[in-house]
Design goal:
Helix 3 packs across helix 4. The protein is built from eight helices and nine strands. The chain folds into two domains: 138 residues, Rossmann fold (3-Layer(aba) Sandwich), CATH 3.40.50; 61 residues, no CATH class. The protein is of the alpha/beta class and 256 residues long. The radius of gyration is 18 Å and the shape is globular.
């Protein structure tokens, strides 16, 4: 177990990573405060290519705040954040490297599955949004429901469409906030297989989850947040379910 010490804060910036093979995302000393409340305190995180990191922790630990900062949806109070493919470019270009799947699907309920993807493709300025939509519907196994309105889809189908939407612009990093919530076992198993496939195809992924079993089976590394602090991290060879469960219980006083 690695206990991290508090860090000095520096100004938030997008900056170059000088290493020969930089991580897709590299964060140092991230802090987020809401008034007097510190949601994040001294978070370091690297997400290399073809790597899935699981972010664990009890409710209120700062997991969703961290994912939103990585997604560019909220600004940290302090710290540095490097996006490898956006060095020297604007925050907008950095966001183009990122796909995000949150608690809400972000789907337009009255549009069909296909229309949701075409519309998102147009927002991203794709040359052929319809072609991209068809490609993603096929990859997610959704061609049969392409003309159904999003509001009519089950939780599992909506989640698959939400992932397709997040991949429309072919981002190098996919961020997911509790994607397994509300899924039945077949849908959860399919999602796990899909995430593993995306990693094998070269994407980096960060996954917020309460499911320690999913984390131990999927993750190349895990980070455990408690009260906004990263108290534990482990790499693939250390990520065994029994050990992870024991460590989680010892640091948080219980299980998710």
């Amino acid at each position: 177990m690695e206990v991290l010490q508090p860090l000095r804060w520096s100004a938030v910036s997008f900056q170059a990573d000088p290493r020969p093979n930089p991580a897709t995302v590299s964060a140092r000393g991230l802090e987020k405060r809401f008034g007097a409340v510190a949601a994040l305190r001294g978070v370091d995180l690297d997400i290399p290519s073809r790597h899935l990191v699981a972010v664990l922790g009890p409710n209120g630990a700062g997991k969703s705040t961290l994912i939103k900062i990585l997604a560019g949806l909220t600004r940290p109070t302090a710290g540095t954040l490097s996006i490898a493919d956006a060095v020297g470019k604007s925050r907008y270009h950095a966001r183009l490297q990122i796909g995000f799947v949150g608690h809400a699907t972000l789907l337009y309920p009255e549009l069909s599955a296909r229309e949701n993807l075409v519309f998102t493709g147009r927002l991203h300025g794709l040359a052929d949004p319809r072609g991209r939509a068809e490609q993603l519907l096929e990859e997610e196994g959704l061609l049969a429901i392409g003309d159904r309105r999003a509001r009519s889809l089950s939780r599992g189908l909506a989640q698959r469409l939400s992932i397709a939407r997040a991949l429309v612009h072919d981002p190098s990093l996919l961020l997911l906030d509790e994607p397994f919530t509300g899924l039945d076992r077949p849908s959860a198993d399919r999602l796990a297989a899909r995430l593993a496939s995306l990693r094998e195809k070269g994407r980096s992924l960060a996954l917020v989850t309460h499911d320690l079993m999913q984390a131990s089976e999927l993750a190349d590394s895990v980070i455990l947040l408690v009260d906004g602090r990263p108290l534990y991290r482990a790499e693939r060879e250390q990520v065994r379910h029994d050990d992870l469960e024991q460590t989680y219980r010892s640091l948080t006083g219980g299980l998710p």
